[in-house]
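Could you help me review a protein record that somebody else here produced? What it holds is a sequence and that sequence's fold in token form. I need someone to confirm that the token line plausibly describes how this chain folds. Take the sequence as given and treat only the tokens as open to question. This is what I was given:
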Amino acid sequence: MRIDRTLMALAVVALVGMPATAAHAQASTGGNMPLNGPAVASICLLSREAIFANAKVGLAASARLKQLAEQAQRQIDAERKPLDADVQAYRAKASSLSADQRQSQEQALAQRMQAVQTDQQTKGRQLEATRAKAMDQIAQYTQPVIVSAYNSKNCGLLLDRAVVLGGNMTNDLTPAVVQGLDAKITTISFNLEPAPAVNSGSRTP
């Protein structure tokens, strides 16, 4: 029982920039037929994914999330280890037990297993809530930098760089925003957030 998917999805925040970066590189080269042309005045491009992936504060948040995910995994492992030992011990002696004894011990083990699974799910929700809050904090720091870069380039329209198939990337604001964000902040501090309440789906009559 592991939370590896949560660890991979939440801890390595920098990886979210890879698809956009790869698409940008492919569009820029276009294989043997690069798509170039004159810069289009007032139309600017931006990749938020690349900002979070390359800015120092994004890398710091990624490292912290990974640390929190690893701590959560160690806690789950610590809970599971004695349970696994007791399951093995039960299997070794099950044949010598009466039907009532087997039923009683199996129920007790199942309850303990359920408790560990519940804790695992809770930690997963905590990590997701922590990731969302950290990303929101970074976005708040980033927005003024984006506005500044937008105005300095006299942009009239800002497009997501990931949707661009090719062309002149002179008005890509991403590098300037990363540089401006690095000058503004390099790290943020945060701890594991409480788990959000689970929506049971019950209705009040």
Summary: Helices lie at 4-11, 18-29, 48-54, 56-93, 99-152, 174-184. The mean pLDDT is 86.
